[in-house]
UniProtKB/TrEMBL annotation:
Keywords: WD repeat. GO terms for biological process: endoplasmic reticulum to Golgi vesicle-mediated transport; intra-Golgi vesicle-mediated transport; intracellular protein transport; retrograde vesicle-mediated transport, Golgi to endoplasmic reticulum. This is Uncharacterized protein. It comes from the Eukaryota. InterPro entries: WD40/YVTN_repeat-like_dom_sf, WD40_repeat_dom_sf, WD40_rpt. GO terms for cellular component: COPI vesicle coat. WD repeats lie at residues 258-289. Coiled coil: none annotated. Pfam families: WD40. It comes from Paramecium tetraurelia. The lineage of its organism: Eukaryota, Sar, Alveolata, Ciliophora, Intramacronucleata.
Amino acid sequence: MNQNCNIPDHETDVEYLCTNEQCRDFRIFCFKCLQNEKHKTHIKDVQKIKDFGRQYINKSDEDLNFELEKNIDQIQRLYFTLKEELKFDCSISEEELNRLDLNQLNDLLCSKIKFRKEKQSLISMISKSAERMIETIYIGLQDFSQQYFDRPAKKVQLEMKTLKYELINSIKDEQINTFAFNSTNTLMIGGYDSSKIKVFEFKKGQLKMIQKLNFHKKSIYCQYFMKKSNEFLSGSCDKTISVCYLKDDQKWDIKQRLEGHQGGINCLLMNKNEDLLISSSDDMLIKFWVKDNDLWECSQTIGGHSSFVSCISLNETENQLASCSKDNQILIHQYDKDAKFWFEFQIIQINQWGRRLCFINDQIFVFQPEMRQQMHIYELDKVNNNFIKTKEVLVGVGSERKKNRGCFWFFPQQYVQQQQILINKNRCCVNVIEKDQNNEFATIQSIDFQTKVIFGKMTDNGEYLITWDDRSGAIQIRQYLD
């Protein structure tokens, strides 16, 4: 290792390292440090870097892993032995039973009663011990997950990777709950907590406001910018959806107001043809809207959830819709082409509710449980044609400085096909997650805003990530860097 010692007057390359757990000195040092009696009290733990590197830095804790494997193996052997023993239940054939006298029959009955009692007692004792073990393992896993992004080793790994999204612009503004971009990413709309909408010109990460709109009475919760026409939609806490269009004088105006929901509009999405609009609401309902003479009409309303519907997502083929709610359920709805009707296809019971889910394609969707360090991956089981949870991906949660409630709503998950990355807001972090060709997911960047109040959107080409958070009080624009 051709690096100078960090003590200025030594001016010589480092040669040694120290592995003593109680050592408080810098662990990488030179021969002069050794001459100055640093690490003198634990000299047996000092080794030359060239002898030690391959053994330690790139080597897992094999002894600890072996000890864990040995314990697991022993438990498994004992479990199967016990299982075989418990199968014995004084079994006797009917022919043998008929040959028994009264005393033998009495002994057999007593034996069976005693065996059953001992079996129940043993299973009860094992169950209590297993619960304690499960709790110990669970607490350990939680601690590992919580510290994952703060560990020095992880920090080194992250620093070695090139940062994907780098902050290039910051503009002070009041709270913006939602963003949306047009098809060319030259226009951006922001939906404000104060109920107004602003239209911005967007160019190379710079914003210029060109119009302010007042089409709602309460906070804007969600927006959608159409790709095939100069129109956008906004959903509000005032229970309405505004359809806005660009007039000939290049000013935006309201074209239609959609009413029907009895609660705030939490999510808006459209199919690729933009002739189907789907909305979800605090009223626990999902509505499907279709165009008739260039105006939208509600064609179907479906329920199924017993709490507000926080997020909805269409699969790639657009014949399945996933929805999540605070009721600890994920619902999969399917479209019947012949009947032209959406129906409930699958109910997935979950242990921890979440606000965010997103279809990746027809076979996979992802789900973020509320404030957990793991994002769940659901894949289509081709045998029973249902979605099942197959794996979990570690994601950042961040560190909170501004205390507030929950994980905060909005900022839906977004999958960018062009870059094969998923944006997943979780607690105080915005996670950039990469998907490879084998459908494996890995978090490659976690941006810690140190507050849960974060709202944002990525441009459809994945080049820019735009956010607003209450700690900075600013629109922050980040750009993708290879």
